[in-house]
Amino acid sequence: MKTLPLSLAIASAISASMLANVAIAEQATKTVALDVVTVSADFRDTDVQELPEAVTVIGADNIALRSAEHLESVLSFAPNVNFSSGSSRGRYFQIRGIGERSQFVDPVNPSVGLMIDGIDMTGLGGAATLFDVQQVEVLRGPQGTRFGANALAGMINIQTKAATKETEGYVAGKFGNYNTHGQSAAISGSISDNVQGRIAVNSFQSEGYMENEYLDKSNTNNLDEVVARGKIQWQPDSDSEFRLTYLLVDIDNGYDAFTLDSSRNSLADEVGRDSQDTDAFAISYDRELSDALILEIDASASWNQTEYSYDEDWVSDSYPPKWGTVFDAYIRDEQRDSIEIRLLSGANGKIFSSTTDWVAGIYWMERDQDLERNRTGKSQYRNALAVQSFSTYVEFDTSISDTSSISYGVRAEQWKNDFSASDGVEGDTSEILFGGKVTLEQLITHNHLSYLSLARGYKPGGVNSDSDVSEDNRTFDTETNNTVELGFKSSLNNDDLKTRLAVFYIQRENQQIKSSYFDPASSSFQDYLANAAKGENYGLELESTWQLLDALKWDLSLGYLHSEFKEYEYEKNVYDASWTLIGSETVDKSGRSQAHAPEYSLATGVHFSPSEFLTLSIESEAKDEFYFSDSHDEKSRAYVIWHAQAAFKDGPFEVSLYGRNLTNKETDVRGFGGFSNDARSTQPDDEGRYAQLGEPRLVGIEGRYNF
C-alpha cells in the first residue's frame, strides 16, 4: 500500500517530464509565468523562494480550486501537515508529527499556532474559514524567535484580502449535495484619498454527512457558519500607515459524528453542538522613522465563547444500558489581548560596518479562560485559567560575502499561568523560556539557494486539573523542540519551475503526551498530560510547481516523516470482570510512532487551460495510516482520493463545477480505542476501534460576479 503514493508521484513526474520537451520548444512564445509568492509571517515580507526555512503558501487560486470553506480542505497542499477533528471541523493541527488532537477539561498549550490577520486564534481552529482569504502560510519547524510559545511545531498564518484603492468587489454563491449552499459578498475601495476600506460577509450551510436513524434526521452534524470582516487602512502621510481589522465569527454547527460501527448512521438520542462566537479586533501601525529605522506596532483583542457537547455513549437510552444516557457539554468563555512593538533596520540602518540588518521587539499577551462543564448526573464543574506572557527578542542578519549570510536570533519569554477549579484543584507555574534560531544561507547561483538552520522551540508546562490524578502527575514540564534543517530552493527555466526541498531532524525533550484512563466510579475517561523522556522525528519535504506551457501547470507536494517515542512508559489500571481494580501494569511505548504522524503524505495536480475561458484541473492526495492516540494502538486507514474542477471565466463572470473525493473513499479524521463504548460489552478488556469519517464525495457548482 505504501508504494501507491510513491507510484503516483513518479507517474506525475514522468508525465511532466514527457511534456518538458514540448515546454522547452514553446519557451520563445510562452507568456505565462509563475507568480512571485511573498510570505508575511516573518519579521519582513520575503519571497518564499528566498526565505531560508520550510514554508508552504496556499494561495487564493488553490483555495478556489477545491471550493474550500475551511482550512482542513487545503492542508494537504503542505507536506507533513495533518489535522484531527473530533468535532464538526478539523480544528487541531499537527506539523511534522507534533500537535494536539483534542481538548476536553484540561487547559491546552498548543504546539501549532494559528493567526488570522494578526489575531491569535490558536486553539480555536473552527474559525479557520477560508472566505475572502488571500493566502495561507504554513511555517514548518519551531518558531522560537518570531512567535515563541504555541509555535513549538510551527505556525499557520491566514492573511485575508486587504482593502484596495480601486473600487472592486464580488457577489458569489454555491450549491452542492448534502443540501450545501453558501452566499458571499465583498466590496473594497477608497473612502478618501488616503483611506481605504473593505467589507466582506459570508454565510455557509450544509446538512452534514451523517444520518441519525434514531431521530430520523439528516442534519444532526450540520454546518451553519457566518463570517464577517471589516478593514480600514489609513495613510496619514507618506511614511506611515494604520490598519484596523474587525472579525466576527458565528459558528453554530451540530456535532453527531461517532458511532459504534464507525459509519455515517448515528443512533444518538441527544444532538451535540460545536459552536463558536468571536468578536475580534486587530490594529497595526507602521512608520518609517528615518531611512535607518522602522517602527511597527501590532495589537489585538478577541472575545470568544465556544460550546462543545455530545452524546457520550453515541446511542439512545433504549439501547442496552451500560452507564445510562450521558450528555457532556463544555462551555468556554475566553478573552485574549496582546501587543507587540518592533524596531527594524531600514535601508540605511545596517550595523556592524553596514553588514547586518536587525530587528528587536517586545511582546505582551494575556489570556483569561473560564470553563463550565455540564454532564448528566454530575455536579457542574468549573475552572478558570489566567495566562500572562512577556517576551523580548532580537534577530540579526549578517552578510558574510556576496553569496552567503548568517542570521541569528533569540527570544526570552516569561510565562505565568494560574489555575483553579471548583473541585479544589489549584496550581500555578512561572518560568523563563528561551528559544531561537541560527541559519547559514548560501546562494549557490542566482536562482539556487541552500541553507542550514538550528532552531529551538518550546511549549510551556502546566497543571492537570483532574482531582483523581496523583500528585506525581499533577504538573507536567515544558517541552522543547530542537530542529536541524537542511534546505534547497531553486528556480529554473526563467522561473517556470520552482522547487523547494527540506530535510529535517527533530529532537523532542520532555515530550508532552496526553494519556487517558477509564474511571469506573464516574463511568468516564480521565485525561492528563505527562512527559515522555524523549521523542525523535525526521523526514523530508519536497514541493514543486512547473508552468510547462501557457496552458499547462503541474504541482507536487510530497512529505516523508519518521517519528518515534524514546523511553516512554506509563502505568495502566487493570480491572476484573466486575470492574474492580485489581492492580496495574506497565505499558512500554518506546520505539512506537507518535500519534497523527503519517509516514508519507502526497498532493499532486495538473491544471490545463485549453482557452482563456476554461481551466480543467485534476488532483490527487494520499496519506499513510497513523495512530489515533499515544495511549492506544488503533490506526486510521491509508488512502488515495481524487478531486477535480472545471472553471469557466468570461469577463466579470465566473462559474465552476467542482468535486472532492470523487471516488467516495472513506477516510478517518479522528479515532478512539483501547476501550469499549458498546453497551453489549461486558469485559473490561474488550476494546473497540471508533473512527470519525472525513468528507464523502462532494460535488457542486459555484458562481461569482466580479465588479
From TrEMBL:
Its main location: membrane. The keyword Iron applies. GO terms for cellular component: cell outer membrane. Keywords: Cell outer membrane, Ion transport, Iron, Iron transport, Membrane, Receptor, Signal, TonB box, Transmembrane, Transmembrane beta strand, Transport. Residues 1-20 form the signal peptide. This is TonB-dependent receptor. The keyword rRNA-binding does not apply. It comes from Oleispira antarctica RB-8. It is a multi-pass membrane protein. Belongs to the TonB-dependent receptor family. It comes from the Bacteria. It is found in: Cell outer membrane. Residues 48-154 form the TonB-dependent receptor plug domain. PANTHER family: FERRICHROME IRON RECEPTOR-RELATED, TONB-DEPENDENT OUTER MEMBRANE RECEPTOR. GO terms for biological process: iron ion transport. InterPro entries: Beta-barrel_TonB_sf, Plug_dom, TonB-dep_rcpt-like.
